[in-house]
Design a protein that fits this description.
Blueprint (H helix, E strand, L loop, with lengths): L17 E10 L9 E11 L4 E5 L6 H9 L6 E6 L2 E2 L7 E4 L11 H11 L4 H14 L15 H13 L5 E5 L7 H18 L2 E5 L3 H7 L2 E6 L4 E7 L14 H16 L2
Parallel strand pairs: 3-8, 3-9, 6-7, 7-8
Antiparallel strand pairs: 1-2, 1-4, 4-5, 9-10
Helix pairs in contact: 2-3, 2-4, 6-7
The structure holds adenosine-5'-triphosphate and magnesium ion.
GO molecular function, one term: ATP binding
Organism: Marmoricola endophyticus
InterPro entries: AAA+_ATPase (IPR003593), ABC_transporter-like_ATP-bd (IPR003439), ABC_transporter_ATP-bind (IPR050166), P-loop_NTPase (IPR027417)
C-alpha cells in the first residue's frame, strides 16, 4: 500500500442517503426447525448522506442479509429500502459492494478486472485506463496490473477488488467485513486508505465488522444489532475528531467508547 496522497480526482457524485423502513426478510429453511426463519423483522435504519456507519452484531443477526438487500442482490419480503429517495430494485454502479471474499474474474488481469465496470458502461477508454492505473498505484498493485487473480496473495486480491469498486465512484459503499481476513499490517493500511478516501469524497459508507475497535476508529455512528430476527439494540455517535489516525486508539475517549460499544455487543448475544 502506498502512503502517498490519493491523486485520483474527487468524485462529483453527491453521496447517497439510505432509508430502511420496516424491513422483513425470511428464508425458507430445509429442516422443520429452521422453516420460515426471519433474519430481519421490522428493521428501520437511516444513514445520512456522506455518513460512515458501522454495523456490529452477533453472527447470524442479519447484517449480510441487510447489505445484500441494499446492494439489490435480494429483495425484502416487506418494507422499503431506498437510496436518495429511490427504491432499490436491483444492483447499480452507484452502490459499490466489497465482501470479505474479494470478487474478481479469474480470467481477467488485475487491470482488466478494475476496468470491467468502466468498460461495461462505455466510459472513455484512455481516461478510464489512467484512473484504473492510478487506483492500482494507490493500493500498491502497480507492478501486478498484468497478473491474474490466482497469482496474487489474499491481501493483494482484496486491494484489487477495492480498486475495482472505487473506479465506479460509488455514492454508497457497502462493505461486509472487508478487512476481516487480512493480516494486521495490511488491515491498518487499508483502514487508513479507506479513511483518506472517505475524507476526500465523503461518499456514504455502511461498514459491517466484528471488530469494535475498527468500528470506533472508522465510524461516525455505530449501530449495534441483536438477533434473531435482527433488530437495532443501540446506536452510538462517535464524537471523535477527524481526520483519524491509529494513535487515536490510545486515547482515553477512544477506550471509553470502545468499552460502551463492547458492552452493548455482549448484551446482544
Ligand atoms: N441464503 C440463505 N438461505 C437461508 N438462510 C439464510 C440465507 N442467508 C442468510 N440466512 C439466515 O439468515 C440469518 C442472518 O444471516 P446473515 O448472513 O445475514 O448474518 P450475519 O449477521 O451477516 O452473520 P455473520 O456475522 O456470521 O456474517 C441467519 O440465521 C442465516 O442462517
Ligand atoms: Mg455476514
Amino acid at each position: 500500500m502506498s502512503r502517498a496522497a490519493i491523486q485520483v480526482e474527487p468524485t462529483a457524485q453527491a453521496p447517497g442517503a439510505v432509508a430502511i423502513r420496516g424491513v422483513r426478510k425470511g428464508f425458507a429453511g430445509r429442516s422443520r426447525k429452521s422453516a420460515g426463519r426471519l433474519a430481519l423483522d421490522g428493521f428501520d435504519l437511516d444513514v445520512r448522506a456522506g455518513e460512515f456507519l458501522c454495523l456490529l452484531g452477533p453472527s447470524g443477526c442479519g447484517k449480510s442479509t441487510l447489505l445484500n438487500m441494499l446492494a439489490g442482490f435480494s429483495a425484502a419480503d416487506a418494507g422499503e429500502i431506498s437510496v436518495d429517495g429511490e427504491q432499490v430494485r436491483g444492483p447499480g454502479p452507484e452502490r459499490g459492494v466489497l465482501f470479505q471474499t474479494p470478487m474478481l474474474f479469474p480470467w481477467l488481469t488485475t487491470l482488466d478486472n478494475v476496468l470491467y465496470g468502466p468498460k461495461a458502461r462505455g466510459a472513455e477508454r484512455g481516461a478510464a485506463r489512467a484512473e484504473a492505473q492510478e487506483l492500482l498505484r494507490v493500493v500498491g498493485l502497480e507492478s501486478s496490473s498484468e497478473s491474474y487473480p490466482h497469482e496474487l496473495s489474499g491481501g493483494m486480491r482484496h486491494r484489487a477488488a477495492f480498486a475495482r469498486v472505487l473506479v465506479n465512484r460509488p455514492r454508497l459503499l457497502l462493505m461486509d467485513e472487508p478487512f476481516g481476513a487480512l493480516d494486521a499490517i495490511t488491515r491498518v493500511a487499508m483502514q487508513r486508505f479507506l479513511l483518506q478516501l472517505w475524507e476526500r469524497d465523503r461518499m456514504t459508507v455502511v461498514f459491517v465488522t466484528h471488530d469494535v475497535e475498527e468500528a470506533v476508529l472508522l465510524g461516525d455512528r455505530i449501530c449495534v444489532m441483536s438477533g434473531t430476527p435482527g433488530r437495532t439494540r443501540a446506536v452510538f455517535d462517535v464524537d471523535l475528531p477527524r481526520p483519524r489516525e491509529l494513535e487515536l486508539t490510545d486515547t482515553v475517549e477512544f477506550a471509553h467508547l470502545k468499552r460502551q460499544v463492547r458492552e452493548a455487543l455482549e448484551g446482544s448475544h
